[in-house]
Amino acid sequence: MSRPPGAAPQVLPGVRPSPNIWGSPDVYELQNRGVDPDGAIDAALRAVHDWAGADVLDVGCGAGFHLPRYAAAARAVVGVEPHPPLVELAAARVRDLPGVRVLTGSAEQLPLPDASVDVAYARWAYFFGPGCEPGLAELERVLRPGGTALVVDTDAGRGAFGAWSRRAVPGWDPAAVERFFARRGFGAQRLDVRWEFATREELAAVLRIELGPQVAADALAALPGTGLVQPVVVRWRRR
């Protein structure tokens, strides 16, 4: 999982670089700590398929922020991440946790056997619907019968944050995304998730890596405090 000093990290075939966490892992760590302090997302996930006693896969685990939370109740946890520097951070985070592994791989080529996991999570990884077909097929391959694929994304068709997200990513079509997942048999639950940070500077730093400088500046001008509400959709499909 290490590379020679000074060597550029290799991008796996088919992987789209993530401009937020790849470019600013420290700020993204701050973001993870400030997003959803009320635990609304985890409660929704566990209501669909609790990970207690299960074999769990975290697709695109990043620096491994969520892996210890899964490991506290799961039988075994695997984090898969395509970006080598993040693989290193995730592996360091969980090195003392039994039953947790971090592997280099992509959503389109998961380094796991067929029918080997009970619950597969992907947070902030499948926003755009069309084009995700190979990754969704891989989820189907690695899930056991009765297992569940769970996808957490911004619900870009709702609220101020949804509008800012569409401005930041021109061409994002929430209606097309809804049709894409509905055709594939995914259920959906919509949540309003609170963000809260210690300072306005922390909020500003997170908004800049998520929305870009101009949209972030406009969002900050509209926000009076140190937090916001993010519209989120939790999607699921059982194998």
TrEMBL record:
Stretches assigned to the Methyltransferase type domain: 57-150
Domain of life: Bacteria
UniProt key word Methyltransferase: yes
Pfam families noted in UniProt: Methyltransf_11
SUPFAM superfamilies membership: S-adenosyl-L-methionine-dependent methyltransferases
GO BP terms, alphabetized: methylation
Keywords, alphabetical: Methyltransferase, Transferase
Molecular function GO labels: methyltransferase activity
Name of protein: Class I SAM-dependent methyltransferase
